[in-house]
Amino acid sequence: MLTASNLSKSFGGRILFEEASLQINRNDRIGLIGANGAGKSTLFSLILKEASPDSGTIALERNVKLGFLPQENATSGDETILELACSVSPEMERAQALLRDHPDENDPMHHEGQALFAENEGHLLEIKAKKILSGLAFRETDFDRKARTMSGGWIMRAHLARLLVMEPDLLMLDEPTNHLDLESLGWFQNYLMNYSGAILAISHDREFLNVICESMIHIAHRKLHYYRGNYDSFLEQKAARDEQQLAAYKNQQREIVEIQRFIDRFRAKASKAAQAQDRIKQLARMKRIEPPERDEATVHFKFPQPARSGQRVARLTDVKQAYGSHVVYQKLNLEVERGQRTVLVGPNGAGKSTLLKILGQVVAIDEGTYELGHNTSIGYFAQHRTEMMNLRHTVLQEAMDIEKPVPEQAARTILGSFLFRGEDVFKPISVLSGGEKSRLALVKLLLNPPNFLLLDEPTTHLDMPSIDALIGALKQYEGTLLFVSHDVHFIKALATSVLHIHAGHLTPYAGDYEYYLEKSGSTSARAALVAPGKAQLLSNYQPQHQIESAPAAPKMGLKEIKAQRKAEAELRKAANKERRDMEKKISALEEEIVVLENSKKEVEDSLENPASYNDGSAFTLNRKLSQLLEKLAQKNWEWEELAATFAAKYPEISNS
């Protein structure tokens, strides 16, 4: 489908590629990885023909359709979210513009827009787009909102929806997980696993690469190195290849030293001069083996350490927290002790970020008490908490504008680890992107850390070496850490305990993430961030030692047994009612589909009658047919979704 041969490309005297080659076949799932600045985005630009190679060629099969999602800054205009998701071709964009600019149904331009919309099966695109937008967590009320009125992250999601609606032959994704929450990410991964085209993805998310990719292309030594398998498999293969390359490099270096020693010793001797010249030619002809390219080093700077807090860092007692009528927590009890490294997991809306905000004193609690322990100082980091920065400062000035300044070289070392390298440290804050500001806020927090650190998705906008730098910094950290993250690698490296949050209730696991996976019966490390598998959720939080030492439940008497049987009967009754209701809905949808199919056939028969074109009714009939097709597609989709849910829930009935 795509073949790149002997590519060479350089910028400012620096060679990115030199006689590099690449082949992408249909249905390939490829992760593109390499050090920051190795040329990943440049390769995308070459494939998209936004840049030209210095030499070499890139050939695409005829009519191959490319789709590209940039890392950030995707554009939007006056179109709605739904229109943006449906703008998969110039024809559709023109149809949408005509309908938007000429809303009067009697306007000939409006009729032209309708015809163009119908010709490009716009009604089917809309149904597909709504389904995909819903999977990416858009609400139905968002569909008609102007895209420009939403945040950059939501606009990026809408552009991602547009690509999925388009279904390009090659889907090119640059950090696609940056703007997705956990549940949207889970939906997106499942969607890509069944995607019909090829995928080429740049991502810092190891779990995403492990789940989606079946091969990796590593940019190193100005070449494109192919590895079969996912990211974990790549790491194993690369380690073995590096070991072999290092051995070959050392052997060649020893050989070069011996040859050079012979040349230096015998060049001036007439009897050995010819042999020395042969050795000189041998060195000139020798194809030099390069040493393995080292991974970008994680930071080795010794971070400042906070003052020691008391044993109890914070305590919440009978806390109620609500947003209007939506109650997030009721009678919440939690105690945080010094030295904890706890990850908060649970579904969207469960209250993870709210709990961090409560503990970070970002929001005031409605009821209950919040007590801070002795000598506790709080640091709260959220992705969009950058409004306090001085826009007139440079990056370096802002990094050093902290209560206890550090030496400039130390500040520049950590800034380099978080992608502010060279002249980047002199950029004014006013020109930084949202992601760059978030990284800078993280640097400031690490340069002057409190002893109670609360982090909400700290790895967003960081590449893999920067994530490892952050892990290295937090492993040194001697304070107390609570954090939310969807990066499984980050969680496994740092968390020593897990707190699952669901419907305002907290379930603690007194072990690391692997312990949580084992105890909760989860089979997927990523899915377990949302739901803990077979584990039963506790109704209220209590410290782990209390849970483990709780007395066994007393035996039930006759009265309790009867009550339990009654409750079980009520549950069976409710389950049977739910099943019957689903069966009724499926039958009703089937009846609606039959009626719509009959109406569609009647309209199509009328359109086949030449008289409809003589009396002017053809336009009305075409319009009615378009509406019927849209309704039919919608009802078919509803039936498929409901039938699939029913089959999953009641397989014994579906298979009978």
What would you note in describing this structure?
The protein is an alpha/beta fold. It is 45% helix and 18% strand. α5 packs across α6 (152-166) and α19 (558-608) runs antiparallel to α21. The radius of gyration is 31 Å and the shape is globular.
Helix-strand layout with pairing:
Layout: E1 2-11, E2 14-24, E3 29-34, H1 40-47, E4 55-60, E5 66-69, H2 81-86, H3 90-101, H4 108-119, H5 122-135, H6 152-166, E6 170-174, H7 182-193, E7 198-202, H8 206-212, E8 215-220, E9 223-228, H9 231-266, H10 273-285, E10 312-323, E11 326-337, E12 341-345, H11 352-359, E13 367-372, E14 378-381, H12 395-400, H13 408-417, H14 434-447, E15 452-456, H15 464-476, E16 480-484, H16 488-494, E17 497-502, E18 505-509, H17 513-520, H18 544-548, H19 558-608, H20 611-614, H21 618-649, H22 651-654
Parallel strand pairs: 3-7, 3-8, 5-6, 6-7, 12-16, 12-17, 14-15, 15-16
Antiparallel strand pairs: 1-2, 1-4, 8-9, 10-11, 10-13, 17-18
